[in-house]
Predict the 3D structure of the following.
Amino acid sequence: MAERQRNRGQRECGRINDDLKNIKLAILPFQGKSNLEAYLEWEKKIERTKKVKLAAIEFSGYAMIWWDQLTTSRRRNGERPISTWVEMKAVMRRRFIPSYYHRELYQKLQNLS
C-alpha cells in the first residue's frame, strides 16, 4: 500500500513538473509603483495559464510586500486564497488604481469632442 502511494506521489510530482515545463515565463516584473498606466499595461501582458502564481512570482518591492501581507491576512482570517485571475485583478485594481482614475479618463474623453 505504501509503495503504491509513493509511486502515485511520484507520478503526480512528474505531472506537475511537466506542467511547469510548458509555462512560458515571459512576464515582466511589477514593482507596485504609483504609475497606473504601467500597472494596466502589465496586467494585459500576463498569460492566461497559471496567471495568479506567475504574476505573484514577478512581484518586487512594494508589490511583493503588499501581496505577502494580503495572503497572510486572508489565511489568518480563514478566507480562501486568491486563485483566479479575475479575483487577483480585482484586488490589485482596488490597491493600485485610484478611485478617480475612471472619472479623469472619462473627462479626458469628453474634452476630445
Notes: The CA atoms of residues 72 and 81 lie 9 Å apart.
